[in-house]
Amino acid sequence: MNLAFIDIFALVFFVTVWVSYSQFARLRARTTYSLSHILRQLRIDWMRTLTRKEHQIADAALLGNVERTVTFFASSTILVLAGVLTLLASADNVVQVLENIPVTAPTSADKVQFKLAVLSLVFVFAFFKFTWAIRQFGFVSVLMGGAPQYRSTDYSDEERELFARQTAKVIDQAGHEYNNGLRAYYFALAYLCWFVHPYVFMASTAVVVVVLYRREYRSKVLRALLATKGLAPGKIQELEE
């Protein structure tokens, strides 16, 4: 199999953009209001409230809802992987289908198999992210089970605050892994365009980055979440609580 230069360039562009955006989003969240930033603050508030409530049944239900959502994506990823691996054995049929699309670049069975193999790696990555998120949400369940009780006098305010912050940090890490898994799905959709043409592949990769950026830093839901704290999108001004 001999990939054309434009195909190699498109694949390198795809990987570079994905990795670069992930690093960019992580670093920018330290200086600019984003969904991850405000959610971290809201999770701390949630855990603070938890330590001052007599019953945590509703909190356990909320955590269970999130965990079930992540589990759904993990299970779906396995099914998607099974479909991609099945297509590997039917590469010739895929080539015939692609040849009937007018804008599709010339391809061959071995190129299709290579592209499917790389696509399977994308979903393997997503699966590992989702399952690690599930495990971390399980850790949160353990922490919530041992949370300082409302009427207990064995815990000082400092200990309750420490518990709230550290438990929120675990939830935050689980949320980041879940987000990384979802991000893999977004880029997988862009990757599908490679089967059409490498130029379309690169264009769709750029579109995905724009969509992700706008949702993380410019979305209406971000404005609404920030408004609960009396904040607005932009540079982080206040000191961390």
Describe this structure in words.
The structure is a single chain. This protein has one domain (5-227). It is 76% helix and 0% strand. It is built from eight helices and no strands. It has helices at residues 5-28, 35-50, 57-88, 91-99, 109-145, 157-192, 198-217, 220-227. Helix 2 (35-50) runs antiparallel to helix 6 (157-192). InterPro entries: DUF599. The chain crosses the membrane at residues 72-95, 116-134, 185-213. Keywords: Membrane, Transmembrane, Transmembrane helix.
Compute the gyration radius: what is it? 22 Å
Question: What is the CA-CA span between the terminal residues?
Answer: 56 Å
Low-pLDDT segments, ≥5 res: none
SSE class? mainly alpha
Order of helices and strands: HHHHHHHH
Strand content: under 5%
As for the number of domains, it is 1
**Number of DSSP-assigned strands:** 0
Helix content: over 70%
Shape call = elongated
On the 0 to 100 scale, the average pLDDT is 91
What oligomeric arrangement do these chains adopt?
Answer: single chain
The main pleated sheet reads as: none
Number of helices: 8
